[in-house]
Amino acid sequence: MQRLLDGNKRLLSSQTLHTQTLDQIRRHATGQSPYAQVFGCADSRVPVEAIFDEDFGDVFVTRTAGNVLSEPTIGTIEYGVVALNTPLIMVLGHQSCGAVKAAVEAAKDPAKTPQGALGALVSALVPAAQQVADRGGDVYAAALEAHIRATVATLQGNPVLAGRITDGRLRVVGASYDLATAKVTVY
Ligand SMILES: [Zn+2]
Protein backbone atom coordinates (compact mmCIF):
# COMPACT_ATOMS: atom_id res chain seq x y z
CA MET A 1 0.00 0.00 0.00
CA GLN A 2 2.92 2.29 0.71
CA ARG A 3 4.06 1.97 -2.90
CA LEU A 4 0.62 3.05 -4.13
CA LEU A 5 0.53 6.01 -1.74
CA ASP A 6 4.09 7.01 -2.64
CA GLY A 7 3.06 7.10 -6.31
CA ASN A 8 0.08 9.30 -5.46
CA LYS A 9 2.43 11.63 -3.56
CA ARG A 10 4.64 11.93 -6.67
CA LEU A 11 1.57 12.93 -8.68
CA LEU A 12 0.59 15.52 -6.04
CA SER A 13 4.07 17.02 -6.15
CA SER A 14 4.37 16.89 -9.97
CA GLN A 15 7.28 14.41 -9.74
CA THR A 16 5.81 11.50 -11.69
CA LEU A 17 8.29 8.93 -12.99
CA HIS A 18 6.27 7.02 -15.54
CA THR A 19 5.86 7.60 -19.23
CA GLN A 20 4.97 4.63 -21.40
CA THR A 21 7.72 3.46 -23.70
CA LEU A 22 7.59 0.54 -26.13
CA ASP A 23 10.62 -1.00 -24.39
CA GLN A 24 8.78 -1.12 -21.07
CA ILE A 25 5.67 -2.50 -22.71
CA ARG A 26 7.67 -5.29 -24.38
CA ARG A 27 9.26 -6.24 -21.04
CA HIS A 28 5.79 -7.13 -19.75
CA ALA A 29 4.67 -8.99 -22.89
CA THR A 30 5.41 -12.48 -21.62
CA GLY A 31 3.72 -12.31 -18.22
CA GLN A 32 2.39 -10.17 -15.43
CA SER A 33 3.06 -9.91 -11.71
CA PRO A 34 1.18 -6.83 -10.51
CA TYR A 35 2.00 -5.87 -6.92
CA ALA A 36 -1.51 -4.70 -6.03
CA GLN A 37 -5.12 -4.67 -7.15
CA VAL A 38 -7.32 -1.63 -7.33
CA PHE A 39 -11.10 -1.87 -7.67
CA GLY A 40 -12.05 1.58 -8.91
CA CYS A 41 -14.90 3.53 -10.49
CA ALA A 42 -15.26 3.68 -14.28
CA ASP A 43 -15.28 7.50 -14.15
CA SER A 44 -12.86 8.83 -16.80
CA ARG A 45 -11.31 11.17 -14.25
CA VAL A 46 -10.07 8.32 -12.07
CA PRO A 47 -7.41 6.52 -14.17
CA VAL A 48 -5.77 4.19 -11.67
CA GLU A 49 -2.26 3.95 -13.13
CA ALA A 50 -2.02 7.73 -13.48
CA ILE A 51 -3.29 8.35 -9.93
CA PHE A 52 -0.59 6.10 -8.49
CA ASP A 53 2.12 6.99 -11.02
CA GLU A 54 2.36 3.37 -12.15
CA ASP A 55 2.81 1.68 -15.48
CA PHE A 56 2.01 -1.39 -17.58
CA GLY A 57 2.14 -4.54 -15.45
CA ASP A 58 2.10 -2.79 -12.06
CA VAL A 59 -1.52 -2.81 -10.93
CA PHE A 60 -4.35 -5.27 -11.61
CA VAL A 61 -7.34 -3.01 -12.13
CA THR A 62 -11.07 -3.65 -12.11
CA ARG A 63 -13.46 -0.76 -12.59
CA THR A 64 -17.24 -0.44 -12.57
CA ALA A 65 -19.37 2.68 -12.17
CA GLY A 66 -19.76 3.31 -8.43
CA ASN A 67 -17.44 0.43 -7.42
CA VAL A 68 -20.36 -2.03 -7.60
CA LEU A 69 -19.45 -5.69 -7.20
CA SER A 70 -21.08 -8.38 -9.33
CA GLU A 71 -20.30 -12.05 -9.88
CA PRO A 72 -17.94 -11.45 -12.85
CA THR A 73 -16.32 -8.52 -11.04
CA ILE A 74 -15.69 -10.62 -7.94
CA GLY A 75 -14.35 -13.36 -10.23
CA THR A 76 -11.90 -10.87 -11.73
CA ILE A 77 -10.69 -9.86 -8.27
CA GLU A 78 -10.43 -13.52 -7.19
CA TYR A 79 -8.29 -14.15 -10.30
CA GLY A 80 -5.96 -11.35 -9.30
CA VAL A 81 -5.50 -12.95 -5.88
CA VAL A 82 -5.46 -16.66 -6.74
CA ALA A 83 -3.56 -16.59 -10.05
CA LEU A 84 -1.45 -13.44 -9.63
CA ASN A 85 -0.93 -13.49 -5.85
CA THR A 86 -1.65 -9.81 -5.34
CA PRO A 87 -1.25 -9.09 -1.60
CA LEU A 88 -3.45 -5.98 -1.56
CA ILE A 89 -6.89 -5.02 -2.87
CA MET A 90 -7.66 -1.31 -2.64
CA VAL A 91 -11.31 -0.40 -3.19
CA LEU A 92 -10.95 3.15 -4.50
CA GLY A 93 -14.07 5.31 -4.58
CA HIS A 94 -14.04 8.99 -5.44
CA GLN A 95 -15.74 12.19 -4.34
CA SER A 96 -18.51 13.53 -6.61
CA CYS A 97 -19.27 10.04 -7.94
CA GLY A 98 -22.31 10.16 -10.26
CA ALA A 99 -23.41 6.65 -9.28
CA VAL A 100 -23.38 7.57 -5.58
CA LYS A 101 -25.33 10.76 -6.30
CA ALA A 102 -27.92 8.76 -8.27
CA ALA A 103 -28.25 6.34 -5.33
CA VAL A 104 -28.77 9.18 -2.84
CA GLU A 105 -31.57 10.50 -5.11
CA ALA A 106 -33.08 7.01 -5.56
CA ALA A 107 -33.00 6.45 -1.79
CA LYS A 108 -35.09 9.60 -1.33
CA ASP A 109 -37.43 8.80 -4.21
CA PRO A 110 -37.39 5.27 -5.71
CA ALA A 111 -39.13 6.64 -8.84
CA LYS A 112 -35.81 8.29 -9.69
CA THR A 113 -34.08 4.91 -10.06
CA PRO A 114 -32.80 4.70 -13.67
CA GLN A 115 -34.20 2.17 -16.12
CA GLY A 116 -32.51 -1.05 -17.20
CA ALA A 117 -29.25 -2.50 -15.94
CA LEU A 118 -28.18 0.95 -14.79
CA GLY A 119 -31.09 0.79 -12.35
CA ALA A 120 -29.69 -2.44 -10.89
CA LEU A 121 -26.29 -0.79 -10.52
CA VAL A 122 -27.73 2.25 -8.74
CA SER A 123 -29.93 0.02 -6.55
CA ALA A 124 -26.80 -1.76 -5.33
CA LEU A 125 -25.65 1.58 -3.90
CA VAL A 126 -28.97 2.51 -2.28
CA PRO A 127 -28.38 0.64 1.04
CA ALA A 128 -25.27 2.76 1.67
CA ALA A 129 -27.24 5.92 0.81
CA GLN A 130 -30.07 4.88 3.17
CA GLN A 131 -27.57 4.14 5.94
CA VAL A 132 -26.42 7.77 6.02
CA ALA A 133 -29.65 9.51 4.90
CA ASP A 134 -30.42 10.98 8.34
CA ARG A 135 -26.94 12.33 8.98
CA GLY A 136 -26.08 15.96 8.53
CA GLY A 137 -23.14 17.26 6.52
CA ASP A 138 -22.03 15.97 3.15
CA VAL A 139 -24.43 13.10 2.51
CA TYR A 140 -22.67 12.16 -0.76
CA ALA A 141 -19.27 11.77 0.92
CA ALA A 142 -20.91 9.81 3.75
CA ALA A 143 -22.75 7.52 1.31
CA LEU A 144 -19.52 6.95 -0.62
CA GLU A 145 -17.64 5.99 2.54
CA ALA A 146 -20.46 3.69 3.71
CA HIS A 147 -20.50 2.00 0.30
CA ILE A 148 -16.72 1.59 0.08
CA ARG A 149 -16.60 0.16 3.63
CA ALA A 150 -19.43 -2.27 2.78
CA THR A 151 -17.60 -3.32 -0.41
CA VAL A 152 -14.41 -3.94 1.58
CA ALA A 153 -16.41 -6.04 4.07
CA THR A 154 -17.98 -8.06 1.24
CA LEU A 155 -14.55 -8.85 -0.20
CA GLN A 156 -13.15 -9.68 3.25
CA GLY A 157 -16.01 -12.16 3.71
CA ASN A 158 -15.45 -13.78 0.32
CA PRO A 159 -14.65 -17.47 0.95
CA VAL A 160 -11.91 -17.55 -1.71
CA LEU A 161 -10.15 -14.55 -0.16
CA ALA A 162 -10.87 -15.06 3.56
CA GLY A 163 -8.17 -17.67 4.21
CA ARG A 164 -5.45 -15.46 2.74
CA ILE A 165 -6.65 -12.53 4.80
CA THR A 166 -6.58 -14.63 7.99
CA ASP A 167 -3.03 -15.84 7.42
CA GLY A 168 -1.78 -12.37 6.49
CA ARG A 169 -1.14 -12.87 2.78
CA LEU A 170 -3.89 -10.48 1.66
CA ARG A 171 -5.23 -7.17 2.85
CA VAL A 172 -8.35 -5.34 1.62
CA VAL A 173 -8.56 -1.59 2.22
CA GLY A 174 -10.98 1.18 1.28
CA ALA A 175 -9.92 4.59 0.02
CA SER A 176 -11.27 7.72 -1.59
CA TYR A 177 -9.90 9.88 -4.39
CA ASP A 178 -10.54 13.63 -4.54
CA LEU A 179 -11.18 14.81 -8.11
CA ALA A 180 -9.97 18.35 -7.42
CA THR A 181 -6.75 17.64 -5.50
CA ALA A 182 -5.83 14.16 -6.89
CA LYS A 183 -5.22 13.02 -3.30
CA VAL A 184 -6.01 9.45 -2.22
CA THR A 185 -7.15 9.07 1.39
CA VAL A 186 -7.31 5.62 2.98
CA TYR A 187 -10.41 5.13 5.17
ZN1 LIG B 1 -17.75 7.29 -9.88
UniProtKB/TrEMBL annotation:
Q: Which residues bind Zn(2+)?
A: 41, 43, 94, 97
What is the reaction catalyzed?
hydrogencarbonate + H(+) = CO2 + H2O
Spell out the InterPro entries in the cross-references. Carbonic_anhydrase, Carbonic_anhydrase_sf
Q: Cite the EC number.
A: 4.2.1.1
* Recorded superkingdom: Bacteria
Q: Which cofactor does it need?
A: Zn(2+)
The UniProt keywords, alphabetically, are:
Lyase, Metal-binding, Zinc
Instruction: State a single Pfam family of this protein.
Output: Pro_CA
Q: What class of enzyme is it?
A: lyase
Q: How many cofactors are bound and how?
A: Binds 1 zinc ion per subunit.
What's the family?
Belongs to the beta-class carbonic anhydrase family.
> Which PANTHER family does this one have?
CARBONIC ANHYDRASE
Q: What is this protein called?
A: carbonic anhydrase
